[in-house]
Amino acid sequence: MATTEDLARPAAADRPRAGPKPAKPIRDARVDVVRGLALLTIFVDHIPRNAPALFTLHNFGFSDAAEIFVLLAGYSSMIAYGGLFRRAGIRTAVARILRRCLRIYLFQAGLLLATLVIVRIWMDLTGLTPRFGVAPLLQMGLLPGLLRGLMLNALPNYLDILPLYILLLALFPLIYLGMRRGVWGVLALSGTLWLAANLDHQLNLPNATADDGWYFNPFAWQFLFVIGAALALVVRAHDGLLPWRGWAVAAAAAYLVFALFQGDRGPIGACRTCGRWRSTRRTRAMSAPCACSTSWR
User: Fold this and answer.
1) Which of 232, 250, 251 is nearest to 242 (CA)?
2) Neighbours of 75 (CB within 10 A)
3) Are 71 and 224 in contact (CB under 8 A)?
4) What digits encode the pLDDT tens for the residues 53-104?
5) 18-26 long-range contacts, Cβ below 8 Å, gap at least 24?
6) 297 Cβ partners below 8 Å, 6+ apart?
7) Is residue 178's pLDDT more than 90?
8) How far apart are CA 295 and CA 237, in angstroms?
9) Strand partners of residue 102
């Protein structure tokens, strides 16, 4: 099994063929491409009643682009900060991660404030009242809703993915230090926590806009983040490629075929509020029935 020691040496794709050594590691373009496609897919999936959404990932399996995004978040975190722990020490690496978390939090705060103000102006001009999204925050009052949103105690739909990323990134130092002792142990602990979140839906962080907690339950989604971090170690240990194992390829192919026939192969129900079609078979700890958290018809 790969270890964090593999981060000390660059992958083959990162090694210059000739000339002076680059000032910083070269980015893995594969990660950027797949992450960009995942973000585009998320955008398409959140547009109600649009034909391209019939061909996105959630129609052909148990997961969608959100899982890809979180998996790659763990992968890129290990690549970006795992080597930094070895090169610059724990204090510098943790400080860099905390600055990154603060920057993302400021983006979250700006998006929340802009959304609340725009929707409030729209309500005043049209006399209409939104039924989901930031509606629960506005019902608390503009300022109280903003404050609770800034404390990450009230996360409205569509503005809840960055808080998950902030939390997981803040926990990355613990994940990295655990993997220095043993990757399999961290994976086992993370998988156990994921299983507990699936068995007990009360295992979640509080959310004033929803009775059942965070839409992206961090106790469940952390498993994908940890898998991504471990995957980065494996890829780096094999010069930028995954090792070929016949049994793993066969198991993955069998799972994909099974997921194709058991996953979201077609519209199972439609949300009464936003009209978005999705299957109800997905595991609650990974995703709520619909982004607007309403009932089905």
Assistant:
1) 232
2) 23
3) yes
4) 888 888 888 888 999 999 999 999 999 999 899 889 999 999 999 999 999 9
5) 25/79, 25/83
6) 269, 270, 271, 272
7) yes
8) 47
9) none
Q: How many CB atoms lie within 10 A of CB 23?
A: 5
Phi, psi of 281, rounded to the nearest 5 degrees: -80, -10
Structure tokens belonging to residue 26: 């070269």
**Quick one: how many helices (H) and strands (E) in the chain?**
11, 2
CB-neighbour burial class of residue 171 (10 A; exposed 0-12, middle 13-18, buried 19+): middle
- Answer whether 68's CB lies under 8 Å from 38's CB: yes
Structure tokens at 192: 């156990």
pTM: 0.81
Which residues, including other chains, have CB under 8 Å from residue 149's CB and lie 6 or more apart?
112, 116, 137, 155, 156, 159
Structure tokens belonging to residue 242: 């995954």
Length reported for the chain: 297
pLDDT of residue 239: 84
Token couple for 64 = 């969608």
